[in-house]
Amino acid sequence: KMELAHRHSAFAASGVIKEEDHGTYMKFLQWDTKVLRFFCVWDDRQSMYGDQRKFVLRYYLADDTLDMIEEHVANSGRRTGNFLRRGRVPKKTPESIVGSGDVHSGDYFTPADLMVGDTVTLYNRIFFICGCDTFTRTYYARNFGISDMPEFDVDPEPLPTTAVRAPVPAYSGLGTQEDSFGSVLYLVPKPPAKNVMKMLQNEKKRLRFRARFTNPKDAADEQRRFIITYFTADDTLSVYEESINNSGRWSGKFLERGRILKPDPTRGSAAVVYYGIEDMIVGNQLNFNCHKFVVMQVDEFSRKVLLKLFPDRDDLQNPSDDFGAEN
Q1: Listing from the earlier edge strand, what are the strands of the sheet with 291-298?
Q2: Could you give the CA distance from residue 160 to residue 152 in angstroms, rounded to a whole number?
Q3: What does DSSP say about strands 35-43 and 125-132: parallel, antiparallel, or unpaired?
Q4: Burial of 235 (0-12, 13-18, 19+ CB in 10 A)
Q5: How do residues 68-103 score in pLDDT, each as one tens digit?
Q6: Is residue 262 classed as helix, strand or coil in its secondary structure?
Q7: Cα–Cα–Cα angle for 41, 42, 46, nearest 5°?
């Protein structure tokens, strides 16, 4: 204080400072670089795209001005930093800002108007003061006798960690299920990923089964026999019809190679399940595009392959007959 008084007397004697400015100058010398810091929250969630935003209100004791800066939030998409330029802020919002009228006239904010736990209105924005720094606590304890300024937790509730997705629409039946589902996941659909290692390891491995119609319509259909080929590389199926002499019917390809859906009205069209290797059982009925087949035989190579995968299956325990002989 003696140093401040000496500096003040020196400036006063030199005539640099006017008599009416002595008090202001002494206040500046005493409180220069002394700043009260308050932590505030502006809850704007009631408006569209609003959010709970955090600020630091800084009150400069040297000239009773204040400013506000917004805390940086990563990936918020908002430019943070200086929110309110430093200056004296009126307690009442000027009419020139709200609507019509001249500039404001009235009181300005002082340290007595800023208290942790209270709200302050700055230009029609309501800020809640939730905390302050150590210097501010010491200042209020010495000047206002307030030594128990609380701290408030204003952090919003954590967002759910699991992503909320819309229900997958029912399979339309056009194309494959993987292709249709790609248009749900991506704006520009991507080709479905393939199991390359499985394709390389099972490239030439094909399982053959002999089948017939489950419910033949006439005697001619009862004599028809088919070879179902299961491709283990990509879990696709193809059906060829055996030739019968003097039957008057063309033999050859009956069903193009591809993945075949299992018809199940209880699941609906949203849950799509394809025929797999576990369905190829002697005596089992298969429904390929409304054509119902029953598996009659399995060749010897296919039996050995299936026996390694399903050692407990009864239909694979005995060696298989040649496709030339019917059971």
Answers
A1: 252-258, 236-241, 226-231, 206-213, 291-298, 285-288
A2: 23
A3: antiparallel
A4: middle
A5: 999 988 887 788 889 999 999 988 766 655 554 444
A6: coil
A7: 135
